[in-house]
Amino acid sequence: MCAGIVCSWEDTRSCLMALVKDMAMSHGPAPHDSPNTDGVDPDSSLNVCIEDSYISTGDDLIAIKSGWDEYGMAYAHPSSGITVRRITGSGPFAGFAIGSETSGGIANVLAENLNIFNTGIGIHIKTNSGRGGFILNITVSDVNLWNVRKGLRIAGNAGDHPDDRYNTNALPVVDKLTIKNVWGVRVLQPGSIQGIKKSPFTQICLSNIKLDIAAVKAVPWICSDVSGGALEVQPAACTNLTSTNGMNFCTGAL
Q1: Which residues of the chain form beta strands (DSSP E)?
Q2: CA separation, residue 39 to residues 154, 168, 189, 228 (Å)
Q3: Do residues 43 and 78 touch, judged by C-beta distance below 8 A?
Q4: Residue 150 CB: number of other CB atoms within 10 A?
Q5: pTM metric for this prediction
Q6: Hey, how many other C-beta atoms are within 10 angstroms of the C-beta on 173?
Q7: What is the set of domains in the chain, with CATH numbers?
Q8: Which of 7, 64, 126, 180 maximizes the CB count within 10 A of its CB?
Q9: CA 128, CA 109: separation in Å to the nearest integer?
Q10: DSSP-assigned letter for residue 102
Q11: How crowded is residue 108: how many other Cβ atoms within 10 Å of its Cβ?
C-alpha cells in the first residue's frame, strides 16, 4: 500500500514508510551521461513507494541499495517492502536497478508498469563478491522497453569497493527473482545472467519476455552460475534456466 510519509527524493537513506509520487526529474544543466546522478535511490529503507513519475538522469533512474561492503554489513539495515510503479524515463545506464551496494540486504521488492526508453540497460540487478548481503523475493513486471542496449542484466561482478578492507569471502545470496511481461523494441542484446561461481544465483524466473532485437546478427543470452526457469522468452533464454526446481519455482511464482 503506497501511503505514508513523503520523503525528499534527494535523500532516501534509512527512510521508513516513504512516498515519492508525481515527480518530474531531469538531469538539467548536467551532461546527459553524468555519472552518479541517479534519480531515486532508496538505501537501507523500509516500506517505500515510488510511483507516477517521469525521470531523466545521467545514471540509473531508480536504484535500490542497502550499504556498501563492510560498512553496509556493519550498519545492517536492509531495504525491504519497496514498490515502484508507473515510472517513465530515460538515461544512459539502467531504467530500474537493484544494487550494486546490497550489503545490508534487499528483499520484497515489486516494480511494475515501467516505460523505459533510450537507456543502456532496461532492468539491472547487480552485486559483487565482497558485498555479502542478499537479494531476495524480487518481482519486476509489465515493462516496456524502447531503444535500449541490453534488455536485462543480472550480474555478480558489478561495482567496485570503497577500500581494500572488504571481505573477499563475503558472498551475496541472490534467490527468487521473477521478471515477467517485458516487451522491447529496438533492443541490441537480450540480456545476461551471470552469477558467482561460489554463490550461484538460484530460482531466477523469466516469463513472457518478447524482445525485438535490432542487431543485424542475432545476439544470444549469456548465462553462467545460475539456475531457474524460462517460459515464453524470445529470443530463447539460456539452457541454464531449465532445471526442474527452477521451473517449479517459475510456474508457482506466476
Answers
A1: 5-6, 16-21, 24-26, 46-56, 62-64, 79-98, 106-126, 134-155, 173-194, 201-213, 222-224, 226-234
A2: 20, 30, 24, 31
A3: no
A4: 23
A5: 0.91
A6: 17
A7: 5-253 (2.160.20.10)
A8: 64
A9: 19
A10: -
A11: 16
The SS3 call for residue 55 is: strand
Amino acid at the residue 171: L
Neighbours of 241 (CB within 10 A): 23
Q: Are the CB atoms for 205 and 179 separated by under 8 Å?
A: yes
The residues carrying an active-site annotation are 59
| Of 140, 128, 218, the residue nearest 174 (C-alpha) | 128
Q: Report how far apart the first and last C-alpha atoms of the chain are (Å, whole number).
A: 21
Helix (H, G, I), strand (E, B) or coil at 70: helix
The total number of residues shown for the chain amounts to 254
Predicted confidence at residue 98, as pLDDT, reads 98
**Three-state secondary structure readout of 202-248:** EEEEEEEEEEEECCCCCCCCEEECEEEEEEEEECCCCHHHECHHHHH
| Nearest Cα residue to 145 out of 100, 199, 181 | 181
* Residue found by looking up cell 546490497 in the block: 102
Nearest to 18 by CA among 43, 47, 39, 41: 47
